[in-house]
């Protein structure tokens, strides 16, 4: 899972296939978009900014895809916009677009891969235990 720090650059990476939409936990953005209807204009603005979506400026199909991805991010509550809560725009290191919440690619080393897979299995198992089952387990020990 990834956390993003730039709406325009994150949309670019999703549309380019560098990051899967499903791998996005959320994006902290400097925008203050109150309504989904504003998203088209925001994306069009990014299409003329260097380092954002300028590679798609002349491609209507790709711009439509960018708009759709951005709207989907908003609809699925994956956009965090501190400015909408009266907080100042966040500071971020230059060129920081994504950070992994935990590793999303493992080593080619079979032992490392096995350890990571086992770790994730244990996390999944412990996160999905209901309280009643845990109480019964604790009584038996």
Number of strands: 4
Class from secondary-structure proportions: alpha/beta
Q: How many separate domains? A: 2
Percent strand equals: 5-15%
Low-confidence stretches: none
**Overall pLDDT:** 85
Radius of gyration: 20 Å
User: Shape from CA axes?
Assistant: globular
Strand order of the largest sheet: 3-2-1-4
- From the N-terminal CA to the C-terminal CA, the straight-line distance is 36 Å
The SSE string, one letter per element, is EHEHHEEHH
Number of alpha- plus pi-helical segments: 5
| Share of helix, binned | 40-55%
Largest sheet report: 4 strands, mixed
Task: Write up this protein.
By secondary structure, the chain is of the alpha/beta class. It has 2 domains: 2-101, no CATH class; 106-141. The protein is built from 5 helices and 4 strands; from the N terminus they run E-H-E-H-H-E-E-H-H. It has helices spanning 7-15, 39-46, 60-75, 110-127, 131-139, and strands at residues 2-4, 24-28, 79-80, 98-100. Strands 3-2-1-4 form a 4-stranded mixed sheet, with no helix packed on it. Strand 1 (2-4), helix 1 (7-15) and strand 2 form a beta-alpha-beta unit. Helix 1 packs across helix 3 (60-75) and helix 2 packs across helix 3. The longest helix has 18 residues, at 110-127. The protein is globular and about 60 Å long. It starts with a strand and ends with a helix. The mean pLDDT is 85.
Secondary-structure map:
Layout: E1 2-4, H1 7-15, E2 24-28, H2 39-46, H3 60-75, E3 79-80, E4 98-100, H4 110-127, H5 131-139
